[in-house]
Amino acid sequence: MPEVREASAEQARFLAELIDHGLILPSGVPGVYGHSAEFEDVRLRLEALLTRAAVENGAERLRFPPLLPRRHFEQSGYLSSFPHLAGTVYAFEGGEHDAEAQAERASRREDWDEFQQMTDLTLLPAACYPVYPAIAARGALPAGGVFVEAGGSWVFRHEPSHDPARRQMFRQHELVRIGDPEVVAGWHDEWAQRGLELLRRLGLEAELDNASDPFFGRRGRMLATSQRDQALKLEILAPIAGSEPTALASFNQHRDHFTAAYGIALAGGGVAHSACVGFGHERIVLALLGAHGLDPSRWPALAREALWRS
Ligand code: ZN
C-alpha cells in the first residue's frame, strides 16, 4: 500500500465542510468520492462550457471508456515514467475450486490476489491516451493535422491522499492537437491563454506557471528538470483550500513522444508532434466552491453567467 498523503489543516477542514454539506460522499478510501446532484450540476455545466470552447475552435468530439487496452498502455511508455501511478485491471479466470477458495478468503478479509490474472486492460491514466492510437489507426494525418476534444473522462492515479483535490479517480477533460510541430506549439500557447481567461471569467484567481510531471525515481528528477528547462509543461494554478495553489489545468507539449510511439506521421511523411490540454473537473468545481462558497445559487453573477448560460 502506498503511503496516504496527509492534508494540510485547511484542506482537512474544507473536506469536512464538503462532506457536512453533502456535496461529496466519502467511500472510506482516501481520494475516492461520490458527489451530490448539486456538485454534479456544476461539473456538467463546466464540461459543457469546455466542450463548447473546443468545438467553437474547430475540435472534433471523440469519446472513450475509462480503460486502455494493455497494448496501447505499453506503447505509451507510461510505465517507465509513472509506474507508481498506474492501475492495471485483474480478473478471475479459474475454475470452481478456485472460485470457492477466493470467495472464502475474501469473506475473511484475507488476501485473494493469487486467484486474479492480469487482463488485457489498464485503467485510463490520462484522458488523452486513447486519442493517439485512434488517430494512428486512421493512417497518415490529414493536411492541417487533427484537433480532438475527448470530453471529461474518468482517469486513475494511484496516489491516496486526504486532500479533497487529490483524487485516485477523477474526471479529466482533454483536448489534443496533433500535426506540424510549429502548429502544435502555437496551439499549446493559444490554449494556455484561452484556459486562463476561461477560469478567470469564473472568478478564480488563476495564474499560469511553468511545471513538471511527477516522474518516478532518480531518472524522473532529471526528466522533470529537462521538462521545466524546455517549458514543455504549463499549469494553471488557483487556491482551493488555504493559500497553497493547486493545479486546475495543464498544458503539455509531447514533441514526438506519442506520434513516434504510435506511428503517426504528417500527410507529407514528416515528423508530427502532439500537445494536450487537461482540465481537472473536480478541482475546478472545488476551487469554485472554495472561492464563492458552498451554495452555487449565491455565486457571483459573472461566474453564474458563464456556467448557467444555456
Ligand atoms: Zn494529455
Structure characterization notes:
The chain is of the alpha+beta class and 310 residues long. It has a single domain (9-68, 125-307), classed as BirA Bifunctional Protein, domain 2 (2-Layer Sandwich), CATH 3.30.930.10. It has 11 helices and 12 strands. The strands form 3 sheets. A 7-stranded mixed beta sheet has the order 3-7-8-12-11-10-9. The N and C termini lie far apart (45 Å). The relative contact order is 0.17. Bound molecules: zinc ion. Zinc ion binds at residues 126, 128, 174, 252, 276, 278.
Provide a brief overview of the structure.
With 310 residues, the chain is of the alpha+beta class.
Topology:
Layout lengths: L8 H12 L3 E3 L6 E3 L1 H20 L3 E2 L5 E3 H7 L1 H4 L6 E5 L3 H12 L8 E8 L7 H6 L9 E11 L12 E11 L1 H21 L5 E4 L6 H13 L3 E7 L5 E11 L1 H6 L10 E8 H12 L8 H8 L2
Parallel strand pairs: 3-7
Antiparallel strand pairs: 1-2, 4-6, 5-6, 7-8, 8-12, 9-10, 10-11, 11-12
Helix pairs in contact: 2-10
The structure holds zinc ion.
Zinc ion (ZN) binds next to strand 12.
Number of domains: 1
Number of strands: 12
Structural class computed from helices and strand pairing: alpha+beta
- Ligands, ions, cofactors: zinc ion
* CATH class categorisation: Alpha Beta
Give the assembly state of these chains: single chain
CATH topology, what is it called?
BirA Bifunctional Protein, domain 2
Radius of gyration, in angstroms, nearest whole number? 21 Å
Portion of residues in beta strands equals 15-25%
Report the mean per-residue pLDDT as an integer: 95
Task: Name the CATH architecture.
Answer: 2-Layer Sandwich
N-to-C series of helices and strands? HEEHEEHHEHEHEEHEHEEHEHH
Q: Termini separation (Å)?
A: 45 Å
Most strands sheet = 7 strands, mixed
CATH superfamily: Bira Bifunctional Protein, Domain 2
The rough form would be described as globular
pLDDT < 50 runs, ≥5 residues: none
H/I helix tally: 11
Strand neighbour order, sheet with most strands: 3-7-8-12-11-10-9
What percentage of residues falls in helices of 4 or more residues?
25-40%
